[in-house]
Amino acid sequence: MVAEVLEALGGARRVLDGTLGGGGHSLALLESGAQVTGLDQDPEAIATGRARLAAFESQGNFRAIQSNFGDVEQLAELKDLAFDGILLDLGVSSHQFDDESRGFSFREGAPLDMRMNLGRPAADDGPQRDGGGQTAAELLNSGEEDELKTIFKDYGDEPKGGRLAREVVRRRGNRPFVTSDDFVGAIRAVLGPRSGPNDFARLFQALRIAVNGELDALARALPALRDRLAPAGVIAVIAYHSGEDRIVKHAFREWSQRCICPPKQMVCSCRGRALGELLTRKAVNATPEETSRNARARSAHLRAWRKSP
User: What is the average pLDDT across 1-8?
Assistant: First the structure.
């Protein structure tokens, strides 16, 4: 959705690309005349992005910083900086997905890894573990049944999430989960032999979201990123998961309301003003032409919001 991103950011000259990935969006923004700071928690993405954008980096128009976009307030390199445009392209990048050693796919024999930040220590704080240390295999092998049920039902929209959690616990008692085949086997045992790629993709995605703490990181990051916008600056977010898109939609709508007091409260005690305006009343989807070239774009939803001048 490069064209849609460029339209949403509307000629921004100082841009924060919070999900650098392979550098595709950053390249388009740089070619449009913007100066870009790219963040990514994946050291391999940082290396790939810097190599692709080396000419712009040598000119001083691009720099890359290894960090999660949720940690923007802690980055000394960005202290006191404001941006005309901020972009988040959520989820896993094509480079990560295609690298079987990273374990993001359900290809036969792939390791159950799924960590986006390979150098970050594990944090055990519930289903959203803010990952980097614990692999998907370790989560399947050690997670409590209720925790796994929450992951499969809430992040994977799986009605049989409780049964799948029980099946995972039963199977790991005999043999630990190691590869994608182990998890696919558990899914098929619960959903039946007619289950297929759509089911696997949905439940592998749910597991990845839990490993990396993606939903919590997004909810925590959005207000901090909003505050880094210059007056009239725009934040654009591409989401691929219903939970991600819901968080973005609700945040943008709340920021666009003058009053956020409870409906029955007689006197307004909140901020009393809108922080900005929605630029996308409904999510923008990828064009049929793009989805025909790239099937992964079918689930992409773009939303944009502009800060008050």
Answer: 95
